[in-house]
Amino acid sequence: MEIVVRIRAARWTDKELVAALIADALHPTPLAAWLVPDPQQRRQVLGGVIGIWVEHAMFFGDIHLTDDLTAATVGFHRYRPIPPPTNYRIRLTDVAGGHADRFDLLDSLLSAKQPTEPHYHLAFLAVRPDAQRAGRGTALLTHHRSRLNRIDLPSWTTIPMGREHLLARYGYTPRPAITLPDGPTLHPMRRNSRHGGAMPINSAQPVDNRWQDLHM
Q1: For the chain, how big is the Rg over CA atoms in Å?
Q2: 151-192 pLDDT, tens per residue?
Q3: Given CA atoms 53, 59, 64, 65 in this order, what sign does their dihedral have?
Q4: 172 vs 118, 159, 169, 192, 213, CA distance in Å?
């Protein structure tokens, strides 16, 4: 059943809630199982690592929530290079432990594909599992598209296999896929600005992407 969805900007006090709902959405996916093979540790590790990036987006991007707090987008303003989260390596090791190498590998594979030109980076689009298929993701993407049209910059994202048709409805086109070693396939997608040309997808100096590209 479709519902009326209202969207607002997240506040600092929402950051733990946002990290939790993204972790909940990611938890049952093949990507989550690849990142944290141990199901007993998976939820805690995902929540901890995602929390680092949600906090970082409060300073270098934006977060938008549905008013019922069940779905969110997290994006980064890569209009110029931005630094990684403060003490990222220490914090990643603290929350991910022996799984940190998987997050690092995902980081390097994504960074090799991401553009260096000014763009908006849609890092997370997540709907809590018990709130899916009711229009929340569509509402967030519609809101996202209207904001992109206002700033008129390219956008970049990465999605799991099978979600390409959803992003295509909002102007994204596919780029070459990334297959993780013994893991799932991810699909980078780009959206060109309305008045600009095609966005190059690589450079001799890739941006600091890290691993934050998930859509659930």
Answers
A1: 16
A2: 898 999 999 877 788 899 999 999 999 999 999 999 999 999
A3: positive
A4: 16, 11, 7, 8, 15
| Residue 84, token pair as written in the block | 């990684």
- The answer to whether the beta carbons of residues 187 and 158 sit under 8 Å apart is yes
Q: How many CA atoms lie within 13 A of 32 on its CB side?
A: 22
Cα gap 139→72, rounded to integer Å: 10
Beta bridge partners of 122: 75
State phi, psi for 70 to the nearest 5 degrees: -115, -5
pLDDT digits (tens, 9 = 90+) for 29-65: 999 999 999 999 999 999 999 999 999 999 999 999 9
- Please report, for residues 134, 149, 186, the alpha-carbon distance to residue 106 in angstroms, rounded to integers and kept in the order given: 31, 30, 10
pTM of the predicted protein model: 0.88
The backbone torsions φ and ψ at residue 192, rounded to the nearest 5 degrees and listed phi first, read -75, 155
**How many Å apart are CA 214 and CA 127, to the nearest integer?**
11
